[in-house]
Amino acid sequence: MIEKINLNNILFLDIETVPEEENFNSLDAEMQSLWDLKTQYQRKDDFTPEEFYDRAGIWAEFGKIVCISVGYFTIRGDIRNFRVTSFFGEEKKILKDFNNLVNNHFNQPQHLLCGHNAKEFDIPFIARRMIINQIAIPDKLNLFGKKPWEIAHLDTLELWKFGDYKHFTSLKLLTKILGIPSPKGDIDGSQVAHVFYVEKDIDRIVTYCEKDTIAVAQIFLRLRREDLLIEEEIIHV
Q1: Contact 141, 86 (CB under 8 A)
Q2: In whole angstroms, what is the distance from residue 41 CA to residue 155 CA?
Q3: Cα torsion at 44, 49, 54, 59 (round to 10°)?
Q4: What order do you get walking across the sheet with 63-76 strand by strand?
Q5: Domain spans in the chain, listed from the N-terminal domain onward
Q6: What is the mean pLDDT of the chain?
Q7: pLDDT class of 66 with cuts at 50, 70, 90
Q8: CB within 8 A of 32, min separation 6: which ones?
Q9: Which of 76, 122, 191, 226 pairs with 92 at a CA distance of 20 to 30 A?
Q10: What is the rounded CA–CA span in Å between residue 95 and residue 137?
């Protein structure tokens, strides 16, 4: 029962990713060929590999992380706060900083990680990019040899599915139907690469990522039938 989980023990998270190179022609010939093979089913005959490259950020082999936003509750008595912070900049530093946070502050058996579609996207993407960047994967992300009930991950999409595994509900739709203020601002996921490479506006991406992290926490509260966070309870650090 999610109502029994101590909110203080959950690390909420969201990531933003972009293609590892700004454009297809920046890839070496072998990577171009591998991209062609990797995406041939998704592209069919509608797009060339080069035309499809703007979607490379959804694959860890061809993308990279430009921001990880995290949030956690601090509840003392009747005072509830939700603290949000972000890691951004060079990818290896992002991953090391996130790794340090998890290992130093969310490494106990009772601690959980939570995101929207995080089991399918955010957490595997982080783990794969850590391996590529030769960073040790924290135990909370390393699933090898663990039984299902030992995996310390919560997923608001999975909680909403109620076992209906063919069902997908976006974060934006779920916040709308649950009466949660929309997390989306002036950009969406498809525009992150443009904002990163062309506009070079990482602050805009960080704001977008933090809004999503807050939205995940709001959904979790709604699933527990608890009051939503108000602006005064949210602290950006």
Answers
A1: no
A2: 28
A3: 80
A4: 153-155, 112-115, 10-19, 63-76, 79-88, 234-236
A5: 7-20+62-236
A6: 94
A7: very high
A8: 24, 49
A9: 191
A10: 10
Among candidates 117, 122, 227, which has minimal Cα distance to 180?
227
Burial tier of 9 (Cβ tally within 10 Å: 0-12, 13-18, 19+): middle
Q: Any idea how long the chain is?
A: 237
Summarize pLDDT for 22-63 with one digit per residue, the tens. 999 999 999 999 999 999 999 888 899 999 999 999 999 999
- The amino acid sitting at 7 is L
Tokens of 199: 């506009």
Superfamily in which the 7-20+62-236 domain is placed by CATH = Ribonuclease H-like superfamily/Ribonuclease H (3.30.420.10)
Rounded distance between C-alpha atoms, residue 68 and residue 123, angstroms: 11
DSSP state of 67: E
pTM over 0.90: yes
**C-alpha dihedral, 124 to 127 to 131 to 137, nearest 10°:** -150
CA dihedral 165, 13, 11, 228 (to 10 degrees): -80
Neighbour-count burial for 47-76, b at 16+ CB within 10 Å, e otherwise: eebeebbbbbbebbebbbbbbbbbbbbeee
CA distances from 228 to 162, 219, 236 (A): 22, 8, 17
Q: Taking phi first (over 0 means left), then psi (-120 to 50 degrees means alpha), and beta for anything else, what does residue 13 get?
A: beta
> What is the C-alpha to C-alpha distance for residues 68 and 91, in angstroms, rounded to an integer?
10
